[in-house]
Design goal:
Strands 1, 2, 3, 4, 5 and 6 form a six-stranded antiparallel sheet that branches. A hairpin with a 6-residue loop joins β4 and β5. It is built from no helices and six strands. It has a single domain, classed as Jelly Rolls (Sandwich), CATH 2.60.120. It is mostly beta strands.
Length: about 100
């Protein structure tokens, strides 16, 4: 079983992605984006105990030329996680968000 969960896969619009179960007590969220020229995006990693009510675990803001990436680590008891893109811009801008087990 892979220790990486793909929460968002090359999305180009705002909105919440599908929720995924995540049983890692210590997690790393990593976002990266590509595009042409100036690109930027903001994505929230969110957690839920019941897959219905969502809490923001952290926000990643990306901005660069052709690409950018960032990540954060957190200890979290939430059973479900998802990504929620709140802003994305730039030519051909695509964003991916992964969640993995923190060593």
């Amino acid at each position: 079983m892979s220790s990486v969960i793909k929460l968002l896969d090359q999305v180009d619009a705002t909105g919440a992605g599908e929720s995924k179960p995540c049983n890692y007590p210590k997690r790393v969220f990593q976002a990266f984006m590509t595009g042409t020229g100036a690109v930027s995006a903001t994505v929230k990693a969110q957690g839920s105990l019941d897959d219905e009510h969502w809490t923001d675990l952290g926000t990643i803001t990306l901005s660069g030329t052709d690409e950018d990436d960032d990540s954060f680590a957190i200890e979290s008891p939430y059973k479900f996680v998802r990504g929620n893109v709140t802003a994305i811009s730039g030519a051909d801008a695509m964003l991916t968000l992964n969640c993995g087990a923190q060593p």
